[in-house]
Specification:
The structure is a homodimer of 579-residue chains. With 579 residues, chain A is an alpha+beta fold. Helix content of chain A is 37%, strand content 20%. In chain A, a hairpin with a 2-residue loop joins β10 and β11. The longest helix of chain A has 20 residues. Chains A and B meet through β10, β11, α12, β13 and α17 of A and β10, β11, α12, β13 and α17 of B.
């Protein structure tokens, strides 16, 4: 729940630089090379009176006096020269057209990293041990296939690139890679090709970003129902390659449920999986492409489930006296008969954050003005422990009403109270803005990022508390002021996803410091019965913890799969498993 | 909806033979070596006056005059001698205990085939080109692991065996296999080890059969909710190895949804997948074990979702004037807000079959007596086209009522009418008895089996009609009288499973004739946008059609996986893919 401003002069220069690029790239918009989102849009807090005090409390930074970093200067970067040989350039130009092969520094740097805080720290510091040697912009699947075959024939390395929002290190070339590295930008494959209205299936090109997909589906009455935090800057192919989940996945399913058919350009030809509702056809190749992060080839399109835009869609807000009450309510809802589209509850810390980002005149401030918080205090609630929850309902009005009735019984049983739809409307409007906050904090010397896991209900509260304790111990070991907060973001029959947001004041070695904090959080995920990632993927960032949940034998199966399907290690090597 | 009788003298002899086997086997009950189910239980029709006329109409056999085959004589079989060398016997005896290693002919023949009609034809004809050389009965996972390691070390072949109900040829040794073949019977691993009541998860051994699982869960208030037709004689490990679905999968999910964690004995150690609700951890190893049919190792246990036994459970029956009305209703229900536990509709042919298996005094006969059918006829319905549907509701009474309201609106809109819960009670009692009918027909010269696919809604009616036409063309090409009928058995957002039952009068070459019919049906599945199997697996029976839905590249991925994880081809080789 943040709020954004319009472009600065520097932002406009960035945008102009992108627009001045040759046609292939010009058709594809990229995020800022140094941060999240559209050039010219940024977080600000001038109209949010509670934000500065919150930041002061959380990480000890006084926003009124903090020094603010200048926007980094692209010209100051030392970008290594492309090592692409002429033969590779020529073959790729044949494959994709001369205007689809780029080697300018800006394009290459844009395609070097995703957008984790580690990525932002590195790119801002000009830490560029290896950047792609060429960026190619295929316009169709046939061109992608030609690229794949050229790369394998010439023993180069191929890294697929969708929206560039990855935070698991899935996009970066291996630092020591001696072979030429080609980043394949799918941005021109952005169309909804076909809607099968009788089946609720749509064939969509892999490079289409979230807003483009909805813009093509909505006018015809359909939605894909997939809304990850990265929605505005992530692509269908990227969602599939990382096993993404969205904010409404409780209803629409994770992308693993949504994506039925897939086409993947592989060495020698297209892997084409028929889009059927379910199948018993051996080990699931579909579920191997899901999460493959480029190691099996380049996803070119998918046939996905789409749904009629629901008649009614409403998000209700609830407050619970504390985390345990909130998580208990979510579990009660999950084990019951009704399944809302969104089940989300923030812990007390994140609730405090949400309240701090409200504008003076709206949302929670309005509630406060109405005396709600005073009333809760009189009832014995500790407002620092109080937890904000959003439950989303979709369907016919009768269905929405029936769901609400069951949910609100569970809320009441768990000691919660409903506060209506006002906060939910704000949440819905602002839900994709939070990533901008990271740049704001980074400009002020604070590293913030997110990490998430899933865990059975029996271990949920212990996971919540244990991860917070682990992060705090890490901050203490660094001697730095830090913050961590959490929400339950998705419910399943047997457990839920816990999503953590953390930030700390950086010292002289931000990357090493980040490692200490991030590793502590990941290790707590494992120690407390979770997984290294619920929906962000493995990449290189989470690979160390993969054996803990798949066992050595499971890693062996993955390594065997990769070795058998990509013997030359040409397809995004060293992601997911080092070998 | 059949009805069974008590043992004959011959059946009792079979049962005695099994009981006389050594301890390891004695603890594990097997189906008849020559047919389905418990020795001594069989289909009869004396109290079902409409059945004989139905069979006469369907396949032209007059049950009053048809000659009936004798129960096959085990002593007449020419069982090839075991080729297991002493070293293998000794090592397996070390691994599992001497009483857990069997080489008697009955045990070996029981473990040679599953229970497809092709299997029954072959085993009754004494067609035994290759039978397992040894059958071993491990009592725990450690013993399974030792067996796997012995088999690989001695370059033998291992075939896991659960309930033995497979109909895809997944259990049979490759006819030309020169190495010793070991069938690993998981029957002694039959316990529910642990229930995590907070998470709704249970840890269950892979050899546990359906009734045993429910018998261990129900007294504690839980159910797995997985009820395939084979339920009484199929195991958890078998369900996972073949990607099974059950009758209530619309609510509980296919086994691929239900099974969260898995342990698989692989060469060198146990593959152990952590049971979490969802994960983004690369290509899904979990979804590789699902459907693996023994090619990745032996599944020893799984952690599965379990649900509280619902407060209310009721199955309502509905009639539709014809197939298109019935399938349209199922689609309307699937695209709506409520999701019943069972959505099933039979076509006119199968409805005729169901009516014919009613006892004179009960169920549909009762409805007929009440004049319902006369009423429908007056309304213009063609009773031969009329389709019977079952919709199952579960949950709180309020939830059941709310679901029914929405469903019955869709039923009405599609021209259907409700006929209450009477037929559903009968369906529920008799649902696992149908497989016995195959033996009854086979004894009377008629080969019957089932085959199923899934298809998007847009192609559902064309699939229904096209498969029937393909089967009828096959019958005509053979010059034989045949029958085929169908029901929609599972609904998904984007399509459904169509389940076909077919039968024809055999000539002199039953296997070759069966090939003609079965191939015609499978080819129609492919030509009309479906898959070779929705929940029975691939084995050797459906392998020819796998490239059509996975593409050659997909087959290459599977072959690569198998070659990498089982380089010696010791683990149930040649199933799913020939190499």
């Amino acid at each position: 729940m943040t709020d954004l401003v319009t472009p600065t002069a520097a932002d406009r220069e960035d945008a102009a630089a992108v627009a001045a690029s040759p046609p292939g790239a010009a058709a594809v918009a990229h995020m800022k090379w140094w941060g999240w989102g559209v050039p010219g849009v940024a977080f600000h807090h001038e109209d949010k009176p509670a934000f500065a005090p919150f930041v002061l409390k959380a990480v000890g930074i006084d926003l009124h006096t903090a020094s603010v970093l200048e926007q980094p200067d692209f010209g100051a970067l030392d970008v290594p020269a492309s090592i692409a040989p002429d033969a590779l350039r020529a073959a790729l130009a044949d494959a994709v057209g001369a205007d689809g092969v780029h080697d300018d520094d800006l394009d290459r740097v844009v395609h070097t990293y995703g957008k984790s805080i580690r990525d932002l720290i590195k790119v801002r510091a000009g830490h560029l041990p290896r950047v792609p040697d060429l960026v190619v912009y295929p316009a169709d699947e046939a061109a992608v296939q030609r690229i794949v075959d050229v790369v394998v024939a010439q023993d180069a390395v191929l890294i697929p690139f969708g929206g560039g929002s990855n935070i698991a290190g899935s996009l970066e070339p291996v630092p020591g890679e001696a072979r030429p590295v080609v980043s394949v930008d799918l941005g021109r494959l952005d169309r909804v090709l076909e809607i099968d209205e009788a089946s609720g299936l749509a064939r969509i090109q892999a490079g289409a970003l979230g807003p483009s997909i909805e813009a093509q589906l909505n006018p015809r009455g359909w939605t894909i129902g997939h809304f990850p935090d990265s929605f505005t800057h992530s692509s269908l192919g990227g969602w599939i390659a990382t096993r993404s989940s969205g904010m409404q996945s409780d209803k629409y399913g994770d992308i693993a449920d949504i994506a039925r058919g897939m086409r993947v350009a592989r060495p020698g030809g297209v892997l084409d999986l028929r889009p059927t509702p379910s199948a018993s056809t051996g080990p699931s190749v579909r579920e191997m492409v899901l999460g493959s992060e480029g190691r099996l080839g380049v996803i070119t399109e998918a046939t996905v489930q789409v749904h009629r835009v629901p008649q009614q869609r409403v998000i209700h807000a609830y407050f619970f006296p504390n985390w345990r009450a909130g998580s208990a309510a979510m579990r009660r809802i999950a084990e019951g008969d009704v399944h809302p589209a969104i089940t989300r509850v923030s812990d007390g810390r994140e609730t405090g954050f949400s309240l701090s980002t409200s504008k003076a005149s709206k949302g929670f401030s309005g509630l406060a003005q109405k005396g709600l918080f005073a009333f809760l205090k009189r009832r014995g609630w500790d407002l620092d422990e109080m937890c904000l929850s959003f439950i989303g309902y979709e369907g016919t009005p009768a269905h929405v009403a029936a769901q609400r009735k069951v949910v609100e019984k569970a809320v009441k049983r768990s000691g919660g109270i409903g506060v209506g739809t006002g906060p939910g409307v704000l949440y819905d409007q602002k839900k994709f803005d939070t990533p901008y906050l990271r740049d704001f904090l980074l400009d002020r010397g604070t590293a913030g990022d997110v990490s998430e896991t899933s865990v059975p209900w029996a271990g949920l509260d212990a996971m919540h508390d244990g991860v917070i304790a682990a992060a705090e111990a890490a901050y203490e070991s660094l001697g730095r002021k830090g913050w961590i907060m959490s929400h339950l973001s998705h419910s399943y029959h047997s457990g839920a996803c816990l999503y953590f947001t953390f930030a700390f004041v950086m010292g002289d070695e931000p990357e090493a410091e980040y490692d200490v904090v991030k590793s502590a959080i990941q290790q707590a995920f494992i120690d407390l019965g979770g997984v290294p990632s619920h929906h962000h993927g493995i990449g290189v960032e989470h690979a160390a913890w993969l054996p803990d949940v798949l066992s050595e034998q499971g890693i062996g199966v993955l390594e065997g799969l990769f070795a058998a399907t990509d013997p030359g290690r040409n397809l995004n090597p060293s992601k997911i498993t080092p070998t």
